[in-house]
Amino acid sequence: MYTWSTHQLTEYFTAVNASADETAAISLAVERACEMVEAEAGAVVLGDRVHGAWGFGSDVPTKGILSIARAPGTLPVPALGDLYAVPSALGEAIEGALIVGRLDEPFTPEERQMLQGMAQVLGVALRSIRVLIDERTLRAEREREATERLILLEQAQTRQRLVETLLTIQRAISNRKPLPEILDAVTSGTAALLGGAPVALILAEGGRGRRLSVASTSGPEGYDFADPDSSHTEAREAMATAQVIVRAVDPHDPAWGTIVATPVRVTGEMAGALVAQLPGSVDQYSEQREQLAAFAQQVSLALTDARTVEAVREAHHDPVTGLPNRGLFLKIFNRVLASRAALTEPTSVLFIDLDRFKAVNDSLGHEAGDQLLAAVAGRIRACVRASDTTARLGGDEFAVLLHNSPVDAATAVGERVIETVKEPFNIAGRDIFIGASVGVAITRAAAANSDTLLSNADLAMYRAKKEGPGKVVVYEPHMHTEAINYLSLRTDLQRALQEHEFRLQYQPLVRLDTGETAGVEALIRWHNPARGLVSPVDFIPIAEESGLIVELGQWVLETSAAQVAAWRRTHPDLTLNVNVSGHQLVHPRFAANVTRALAVAGLPSGAVTLELTESVLMSDPDAAVASLASLRELGVQLSIDDFGTGYSSLAYLRELPVDELKIDRAFIARAELTGEDLALVRTIVELGHILGLRVVAEGIENAAQLEALRRLGCSYGQGYHLCRPSNPADIPQVLARRSLTAVHP
Amino acid sequence: MQSLTDRWFGVGHSVAPDSAKAGAEATAAALSGRTPKAVFVFCSVNHAVPALLDAVRAEAGPGVTVVGGSSLGEISSEAGATTDGVVVTALGGDGFDVRTRIAYVGGNGHREAGADVAHALDGMDRPHTALMMICEGMSGNPHEIVRGAYSVVGAAVPLVGGLAANDTGKRSFQFHDDRVVSGAVVGVAIGSDAPMGVGIAHGWHRVEPPMVITGSDQTRILELDGEPALDVLLRRRGMTEPAELFANNTRLQAIGLSRRSGEDIRIIVAADEADRSLIGLATMPQGAICWLMDSDHESLVAGATTSCEEAVAGLDGRPPIGVFTFDCGGRRGALGDEGIRAEAATITAALPGVPFGGPYTMGEIARIRGSLGTHALTLVTLALA
Fold it and tell me: Which residues are in the EAL domain (chain A) (predicted)?
């Protein structure tokens, strides 16, 4: 018969973790806890305040509740009577307690254990909500500061509209809009700046005659100066004198308004004039004259860009995204470093690498891949100022050069890039989801080298990918040392298999009721002559990254299978547990390799259990399920290692053909297990029983832990208290002992 | 202990096809010439409800509280179990106070509506109180209505009531002060100088093995054990077509969630063939372990006795003057015509000489232990002394 409590903890976990804020989480946690143990009333105490009081009616006995937070007891409630009340601590992260009170009978030890489990679930939920809120507040604060800075900047730089208009034109140019569209942006921008006045851009055509033509107009129509056949007197004069001309349309009648013409240059040469007609008299427009002059200056630069951009692009730009290529980027970078106004001015470079791009490219084809890269380029550019430089370095790598950007600003840009790339891309009619990792390098040094900075940003990006993905990491000098260490470790590791530097040790898996050794887990050890013993924690990730893990895993399987087959001659029931990496699991020949190894060793497949971690199963569940299903057909058993540390989802336990759960040592690590530990372990053990799985406790280090686990009904265990990992030569002696739980190792 | 002799509880029950006549007959029988404090009316949606309520009002007189709702059938000490009839209960005499309040779930939500009507108890000054709730039964999430009421009144006040029903349309009806409304919660605060007792019982049992609700969305079960829920239910019931599951002659499809004192039963009313999900009347918590539930006539009928005995036991030894019943329409479906006659006889035997009456509902409300107050497939009783 199943106990009702274990079932409800999962239900509770799902409900509480869906809450959006602290108040909602607390109310839900209290209500559901009360409903599940059929308690009449409950509350949460945080510090010296009562939250989420439930079931007390309008008259909440705050004092009584606070006193229960310290110790269980009786809670008198007006109009209701005395409740049996117990507090359950919310865990280490949050100081507080979940309190429930019941009228008819006290809580059983089993119920109190479940309540402790619930309180811990609430504690975890509250902590993650707080972290989220802190992050949100921080982000809001940053955004507010940025806005304030912008306002100050705009006040300092005359007109906000001027900036906006110029940015619109810049964007039109940088987005490679056709020239007529850019020119229309120029005139409509000017018109807006002048309160909707009619505006025309007059440009000189090539050739000797220098005929003037109206390239673009904006605002009301029908004005002489915008007529293609007009004499363009003011425009010609502005071009000839290189001065802003301000003149009454009719010198005898100010009611006709004022005409303003400013010269426009392209690549240094006089190319035309921007002409506007304003309604008032000449003396009214000194400010507009200044504005128009400043504006025309910017327009000149913009047009220069637009005219020269094509030529430059062809040599130095990436044809897919239209961004500068690596060569041009480094040139620009060097120029910026050389021309810094002050040597202390910080220059930052962002190295951006896309996550999962390869999968898109492989599955949807190169054309879709190119479209995606172009779209990514557009989004990255939208995250930076027009004055910053964005480049595609090659493949799915981009870089951004930020002028005068301190570390905070550069990191913020990196975060913006990650956010924007995370949004779905619609490519070939479907939504594509990718991500990005960003490394940042910053210099204030006088003799900065663009190559070095870029490679530092690359190192930081590499670290971001490792920690993330989807993270921004700023380069620090130790990363360089680590990178060198990593490379040398990787070289050594590649040689180690040929040099026979790997050994296996075996740790017994013990039946907790009889103390008999049921099986052994094979554990890999690497002894390098120069480095000494290298921990698997250090070399397994490298083996995984370099792909060496497939070969190494196969070696472990073959060696241990042969060894266990030999031991089975005297201990025919002995089984073997082998750890399997995610890379092995998704390798197309994995099932075949396992079959071969077992056949060669003469070990029946039913004697072998492959151990997988939760993260492996979750990262690519479809591939995992397919591979596991074929292994299962062979009769090989499967175990979830480190259960409880990750998703621990009921759903995947039901989906995957799992036979064994290993409770992570983290839950058993304390010398004396607390009620909370016990509640969690009990939950896992019962879950295992419900689903018909073998449950193994790892890391049993003392007799108290052993006893507690036995009491909870855990069937198997491993740990120093039972037997340390041993060399193959010592195992027969271990197997000869009748019971490991009776003898200390 | 002596009962207060001038307090009374009356029941009338009519199956007259004419709505006005049925309302008048049942009310006249319930009042027997006495002036009531409150009149409770439950009738089929097939009646012309406004005409029926007008007739009730004419009999009860002005100023008397009239509340009620549409039902899936009626049961009483007067006429046993019927369909398409009307049952009227009434109480009066000294030592009773009745106050009412109405709120709409469409306005602010289920929980808020529940919390709102709980304020019917405000200012109630009697030693014993209870809150009866007559709720829209077809707007989903009745749990939240009851949680809302509980958040205001707490554990000191028992909650009882039922979900109004409509077996042909999409809305049920609630009656409050001569108005027929939909999507509402009617709260009836009853104050009494004598104790009131609440009883509840079902009569269903688990069918092994259990399943995990691996996917759900509000009142919908998407997956059981990681498989489309509809496919699992069809397999477990040995059927191939979803229509078979919910056919009239088939047993009711119910699942039970594991709870301390047994199961929290939820009825499955329909299946969605498009996404192979199952649709229930109340929230289906993801992650919960559940059992298919089955029943047999004997244990269902025995449950009726248990419910009545529990309610009477809450009266501190005083004799009951009358009992409100809220019986689940699902029990009726499971028991069949003969079964419900047996159930009515069983209640009569459990409450010898005591008038009782009430509707067949879409779900029942009874909060006695703990704080969970909504149920399915139960018989809820509120006994007055």
Answer: 486-739
A437, A291, A286, A245: which is closest to A356 by C-alpha?
A437
Contacts of B366 in chain A (CB under 8 A): none
Q: Which of A293, A313, A333 is the last residue of a domain?
A: A313
- Domain co-membership, A210 together with A344: no
What gap in Å lies between CA B86 and CA B89, rounded to an integer?
Answer: 10
CB contact under 8 A, B212 and A102: no
A-chain CB neighbours of B259 within 8 Å are 4, 8, 36, 38
Q: Which one of A5, A6, A11 makes the best mutation probe of the B interface by having the most chain B beta carbons within 10 Å?
A: A11
Q: Is A483 a domain residue?
A: no
B371 vs A650: CB contact, 8 Å cut-off? no
Instruction: Indicate the domain borders of chain B.
Output: 8-201+299-384, 204-294
Q: Answer whether A7 sits within 8 Å of B152, measured CB to CB.
A: no
Query: In the block, which residue shows the tokens 């730009």?
Result: A317
- Residues B87 and B52 sit within 8 Å (Cβ to Cβ): no
SS3 letters for A350-373? EEEEEECHHHHHHHHCHHHHHHHH
Residue A557 sits in a domain whose CATH number is 3.20.20.450
Q: Tell me, yes or no, whether A67 and A196 share the same domain.
A: no
- Same domain? For A459 and A525 the reply is no
Under DSSP, the state recorded for B318 is P
Query: Same structural domain for residues A323 and A304?
Result: no
Gap between the Cα atoms of A596 and A594, Å rounded: 5
Q: Distance of CA A7 to CAs A167, A687, A701, B212, B355, Å?
A: 60, 8, 30, 9, 42
What is the extent of the structural domain holding A565? 502-736
CATH class belonging to B204-294: mainly beta
B151 with A54: Cβ contact below 8 A = yes
Q: Which of A12, A38, A650 shows the shortest C-beta gap to B261?
A: A38
User: Could you read off the pLDDT of A294-347 as tens digits, one per residue?
Assistant: 667 656 656 666 665 444 444 566 778 878 888 778 878 887 787 776 666 788
Domain count, chain A: 4
In a domain, A439, yes or no: yes
Task: For residue range A359-405, list pLDDT tens digits in order.
Answer: 788 778 888 889 999 999 999 989 988 778 899 998 899 999 998 88
C-alpha A215, offset from chain centre: 48
Q: Is residue A481 part of a domain?
A: no
Facing residue for A39 by CB, picked from B259, B287, B371: B371
Is B155 within 8 Å of A56 when comparing Cβ atoms? yes
> Which pTM value belongs to this model?
0.50
Task: Report yes or no: A690 at the B interface, CB cutoff 8 Å.
Answer: yes
Write out the E strands in B106-252: 128-136, 159-164, 174-176, 179-181, 184-192, 196-201, 204-217, 220-224, 227-228
Cβ of A54 within 8 Å of Cβ of B260? The answer is no
Q: Does one domain contain both A727 and A642?
A: yes
Residues 6 or more apart in contact with residue A64 via CB below 8 angstroms:
A75, A76, A77
Here the ipTM equals 0.79
CB A41 to CB B155 under 8 A? yes
Question: Both A125 and A273 in a single domain?
Answer: no
- Contact of A40 with chain B, judged by CB distance below 8 Å, is answered with yes
- For residue A597, tell me if it sits in a domain: yes
| A303 and A185, same domain (yes or no) | yes
Nearest Cβ partner for A41 among B152, B154, B210: B154
Interface test with B, best of A54, A83, A84 (most B CBs within 10 A): A54
Are B285 and A650 a contacting pair at CB < 8 A? Answer: no
**CA B10/CA B76 separation, integer angstroms:** 11
Give B226→chain A minimum CA distance, Å: 6
Return the CATH number at A76: 3.30.450.40
Along the 385 residues of chain B, how does pLDDT read in single tens digits?
A: 444 568 999 999 999 999 999 999 999 999 999 999 999 999 999 999 999 999 999 999 999 999 999 999 999 999 999 999 999 999 999 899 999 999 998 767 899 999 999 999 999 999 999 999 999 988 777 888 999 999 999 998 999 999 998 887 778 999 998 899 998 999 999 999 999 999 998 888 888 887 878 788 888 999 888 789 999 999 998 898 888 888 766 677 889 887 776 678 888 888 999 999 999 877 888 767 788 988 888 888 888 999 999 999 999 999 999 999 999 988 887 888 888 888 999 999 999 999 999 999 988 999 887 777 888 889 999 999 9
